[in-house]
Amino acid sequence: MKMFELIKDQIKNFKKIAVVTGAGISQESGIPTFRGKDGLWKNYDVMKLATIDAFYENPKLVWEWYNERRKNIFQAQPNLGHKAIAELEKYAEVVVLTQNIDGLHQKSGSSKVLELHGSIVTIKCSVCDYKEEILTEISDFPPYCKCGNILRPDVVWFGESLPQKVWQNAIVFASECDLMIIAGTSLVVSPANTLPIYAKQNNATLIEINPESTEMSEEMDIIIRNTSAKELPKLVSLFRTNYD
Ligand code: NAD
Question: Is 117 a catalytic residue?
Fold first, then answer.
């Protein structure tokens, strides 16, 4: 297995670090991932609930699912993986490119977080421009906007476009970084899964932290087959000791 020690001598050369994260980084905070054994909810396939078609077909059902996720996410705390990423800012310019909608990177102190798939905390109108952060529970599903149309979570569903400005900024940083850390993502969701390619084109070093192999494992310079809360602190301690 390729280990962090391989980059020990390069640590001080890493000036721009992109951290690409997915559901797996929040798994140790008690938030289930989509794929794998936790990917079922009351016998519904979550991949089929996170679509605009599912929403219009049964907004009440989709809202009930999001409400459970919201409750769980509001209670969740950042784990050692999120915290390690926040600490990395002491040593380099760091931008977190996350597919997560849970806000835990911000909660752990990361200052530059690009939410590629939106946020579960924010609610928006399915038709007009209304958008608001709502930190309390929502009752009566589906909720309605003042304009009379249905409100929805401000997340990107399968088949929808990413927020264009956020995505453009993500591509720019991925293309400029000299180290990309990819943690807790299966790299199957497009276009987020193309970010490592931009980094590779810049000859960046690619590190994957994931207990399972992914679509792009073969492209990685370093692969750590363990959980992010266990491994990210070890990676960051390499920075700490090299900068002390
Ligand atoms: P995914 O569910 O497809 O894959 C999760 C990956 O994390 C898997 O490769 C798995 O092996 C790995 N993993 C599981 N536990 C881990 C751990 N402790 N440490 C490191 N890796 C671990 O998730 P994805 O790639 O993010 O893509 C699916 C979509 O799911 C995204 O669009 C995202 O918005 C959404 N999602 C987000 C959350 C969240 O915000 N926390 C939760 C569920 C799903």
Answer: yes
